[in-house]
Amino acid sequence: MSLRRFFRRRQWDRERARELESHLAHEIDDNVARGMMPEEARRQASVKFGNPTVIREEIWQMNSFPFLENLGRDVRYAHGNCISLRDSPLQMFSRWHWESALTQPSSA
What we know:
Helix content is 83%, strand content 0%. The chain has 108 residues and is an all-alpha fold. α2 (9-33) crosses α3 (38-49), α2 (9-33) packs antiparallel against α4 (52-62) and α5 (66-87) packs across α6.
């Protein structure tokens, strides 16, 4: 996968969504032409293609670099905590203390 595709994933996703909708519409039209009622034609087309959201999520995952995404998420989280620490150190310490107490295993 190229970096260009990584940075254009939103556009790529919109294009794939339109493409999936187009294929689904064509399949519905074909089913109606075969003599199915419109609702049954839509249901059969949906069964044939599967869940479009799952397909789009799989494409999104194929066009991603998990390391970079996790790193970006961690940097945003750390930045938010630094701002919180600067603005309210006591509240930040209190939250950290409770989070660490909740994640420690109990001795009971």
